[in-house]
Specification:
about 20% helix; Peptide Deformylase; binds zinc ion; alpha+beta; five-stranded antiparallel β-sheet; three-stranded antiparallel β-sheet
Length: about 190
């Protein structure tokens, strides 16, 4: 396993439509292992392959156990994920992105979704996710189509700067859309 470099906004790979995976080989396994290690190291709750400059349809997600909510830690690896069902109801919540360091935004997402895809060996899998987990899935799957959370906010006033130090890393695309309001950092994907 190795930690890979996470590319940030302005890098063209983040805006590509990622390719469907057709080969379930050793290279794919290595990519997934590296993505998990990179996500943990960041730290983040999700990572999509384009964020490590690999324009392929692969995502990893790992959430911590929440004792208050009584939910266990969960890990998902999805190859070629697709949202096949989604709640009509949406809710707004805060998101960050490892590729947009220093910023969070209020983003509307489906409350629950059903995701279909494959595991690292190419076997079909399906999950129904709701709430926070559904939000992470939607954020990561967006990355596979070149979509970032800043594209999903209703208006630029819903993007907040977290720290001054990270702002230099952003290009004009994000910087223009920023309201300089202090905000607590949230887990990022
Ligand atoms: Zn992201």
């Amino acid at each position: 396993m190795a930690i890979r470099e996470i590319i940030t906004i302005g890098h063209p790979t983040l805006r590509l439509k990622a390719r469907k995976v057709t080969k379930f080989d050793q290279e794919l396994k290595r990519l997934v292992d590296d993505m998990i290690e990179t996500m943990r190291n960041a730290p983040g709750v999700g990572l999509a392959a384009p964020q490590v400059n690999v324009p392929e349809r692969v995502i990893v997600i790992e959430t911590q156990a929440d004792e208050e909510e009584g939910t266990p830690a969960e890990q998902y690896v999805f190859v070629n994920p697709e949202i096949v069902k989604a709640s009509r109801e949406k809710e707004e919540g805060q998101e960050g992105c490892l590729s947009i360091p220093g910023y969070v935004g209020d983003v509307e997402r489906h409350v629950w979704i059903v995701v279909r895809g494959q595991d690292v060996q190419g076997r079909p899998q399906r999950v129904r996710a709701r709430g926070y987990l559904a939000r992470i899935f939607q954020h990561e799957i967006d990355h596979l189509d070149g979509t970032l959370f800043i594209d999903r906010v209703a208006d630029p006033s819903k993007i907040y700067k977290v720290t001054a130090a990270d702002a230099d890393q952003l290009d004009a695309e994000a910087a223009e859309a920023v309201a300089l309001l202090p905000q607590e950092p949230v887990p990022a994907g």
